[in-house]
Amino acid sequence: MRLTPLRRSGLLASAALAAVASLVLATSAFADEVTTDDPRAQPFSQFIDVNHPEACTVGGLSGNVVLPGKFVYTGGDNQQHLNITGLPEDVEVTGMLVKAGDVFNVYLADKLGEAPWNELRAPVVDGGNLPEIGQWFGCGVAVEQPPTSTTTTTTTTTTTTTTTSESTVTHSSTPTSTSSSEPTTSSSSAEVAPTTTTTVAPVPVAEVDDLAATGFGSAWMLGLGAALVAAGAAMVLVMRRRRV
């Protein structure tokens, strides 16, 4: 029995639909087999890794990928459990993703509560066996840091230069006669020891007529003096002529 082209096309289409249906059933059956022994987690089976553009959109996660280096932790890769003991300060973590192969557990931060988050793990496989963790990372939203104010203190130093001018004082050693007996003090801008000037009062000469009469005449003494002066002059003149 020969098949017409139309009937042949219908059979091919039916076979294709059957194959697609079988694949969907197989995938659903495998998905149903992904289980977890951690009540805090939600298990999934699909290809998701840290570089996937939708890595933080599955299972209620939000934000962007937060790499393991941002956390303080023990365990993790190639071990069955992961213990998160410290969270990043600049990120609000929305959840964690822990995977083994193509199966992974999604942990939402709301269900985990406050850190530390201990014994996070991947879904169980092969009838209940706990696999080693192949990869893990967090998801979160960056926290805006408050602006920091910077106070700058400027110190200005002023230098003042003072010039002192010295005065030269000339002292005279010649005594000055004044009518006052008070000492004269010379002062200047420089500190100078006081100079005392001694004033000598002239002794008045009494007139001859004002002398008291004592009964002793002095006229003959004046004549004698004049005679001696004349004799002396004569002797000097005689001595000069002899030398000549």
UniProtKB/TrEMBL annotation:
Location(s), subcellular: Membrane
Chief location bin: membrane
Q: Which region is the signal sequence?
A: 1-31
Write down the InterPro entries for this protein, in alphabetical order: Immunoregulatory_rcpt-like
Give the start-end ranges of region Disordered: 143-198
Q: How does it sit in the membrane?
A: Single-pass membrane protein
Question: Which residues fall in a compositionally biased region of kind Low complexity?
Answer: 146-198
Q: Which UniProt keywords apply?
A: Membrane, Signal, Transmembrane, Transmembrane helix
Report TM segments. Answer: 219-239
Q: Is Ribonucleoprotein given among the entry's keywords?
A: no
Any idea what this protein is called?
A: LPXTG cell wall anchor domain-containing protein
Q: Which organism is it from?
A: Lentzea kristufekii
